[in-house]
Amino acid sequence: MSISRERLSPEQSRAAALEAARRLLIDEGPQAVTLKAVAAQIGKTHANLLHHFGSAAGLQAALAQLISDRVCAGIAEAVERSRQGEADPIEIVDRTFDAFGREGAGALAAWMILSGNRDALNPILDSIHQLVDRLGEGHEDRPVHETTLWLVLAAIGDSLLGEPMAEALGLARGQAREVARRQLIGSTRLEEGQRQ
Description:
By secondary structure, this protein is mainly α. Helix content is about 75%, strand content about 0%.
């Protein structure tokens, strides 16, 4: 669905393009995120998008940055609320799995790696690293980095192979998420017990 050709500021044009790219990613997969397809979605030209992003790889890197910023903000909020007793640790798992699955970050990351565009992953990796460092401040007694590693890898794996693997093993589709929930709750209880 194209939007009307109204005059947008450069920031609005860029934001509209990234939102269209995110929708294409979610609806059709990472291979659908092309300059031509995004331009068609927002009623702009291919040249206009080249001006904003420089290349398809630039568009993908900007999309990765947008997704990682949203993902990290949501996870940070869930962690802080959990630490204050306002949210269940399960929300952290759900937000992580949703980000890599439903929001398309896992497919985008895999596609970038397989297409040789590894550098475009840097925004995602940098955002996660900054988030983990921030969440670890004052909680040096907790394995924040290790927990993040296994949780992100589980979420990426589930986003790419979760459905066929669960089906092959005769398990429910959400089983990997459930295992991650139990793992996080168990490690949280263990940490709390060790601190007492």
